[in-house]
Design goal:
The protein has about 190 residues and is of the alpha+beta class. Helices cover about 30% and strands about 40% of the residues. It has helices spanning about 1-20, 55-65, 160-175, 180-194, and strands at about 30-40, 45-50, 75-80, 85-95, 95-105, 110-125, 125-140, 150-155, 160. The protein has a 9-stranded antiparallel sheet, with helices on one face.
Length: about 190
């Protein structure tokens, strides 16, 4: 379960930061957004509440334009379709290559929804394919205890999205740069295949 949660978390971070607000997608309406993020394979779902404004949206766009945290996702394209947007992202996570394709629809004023299918090679912690669905609804003004950029997941503590991205990057760096951890990951991947 821990390995599934970690892979799911990495996919969600990548989807949210790496692709969902690329330059071609509309800017979300300022205020509080609640998103239900479901990851296939029995990993469950998460509900995030995020307060956004024009400045935080611009910051996410800047992060995406550089390929995510430390260039984690150098390929990131968005194509407008008749019904919404088609996305394609190529990322490198902990020694695995992740290619994600998805679609998003909605007006980004009241709601939006999307599905991303991610393929990881080699599989990370035994997970080679993940489907993530995001359904987001605008809830109105930000509450008094949240400022733009703040996010809360599953009713947990309110944290800065910028700090969350930095923590995710540190975790990814630890996976990538720790030879013992890399060896343990390879052994876990091998065991998952048996």
């Amino acid at each position: 379960m821990i390995r599934i949660s970690l892979v799911s978390g990495l996919v969600v971070v990548t989807v949210l930061v790496g692709s969902a607000w690329a330059e071609s997608l509309p800017t979300r309406k300022a205020g509080l957004w609640e998103a239900t993020i479901s990851v296939g394979g029995g990993a469950g779902s998460q509900v995030s509440r995020q307060c956004v404004d024009a400045s935080t949206e611009e910051g996410l766009r800047g992060l995406v334009s550089q390929g995510g945290p430390k260039g984690m996702c150098p390929v990131n394209t968005v194509e407008k379709t008749g019904a919404g947007y088609r996305l394609h992202t190529e990322c490198s996570i902990a020694g695995s290559s992740m290619v994600s394709d998805g679609t998003f629809t909605g007006d980004f004023e009241r709601e939006y929804r999307g599905t991303m299918v991610s393929e990881m090679k080699p599989a990370l912690f035994g997970s080679g394919r993940t489907e993530t669905t995001i359904v987001a609804v605008y809830k109105g003004d930000c509450p008094a205890d949240m400022k733009p950029g703040d996010i809360s997941v599953n009713g947990g503590p309110i944290v800065s999205a910028t700090e969350s991205v930095a923590k995710a990057q540190a975790a990814l760096d630890a996976l990538k740069n720790n030879p013992d951890l890399a060896k343990a990951m390879r052994e876990m991947q091998r065991a998952a295949k048996e």
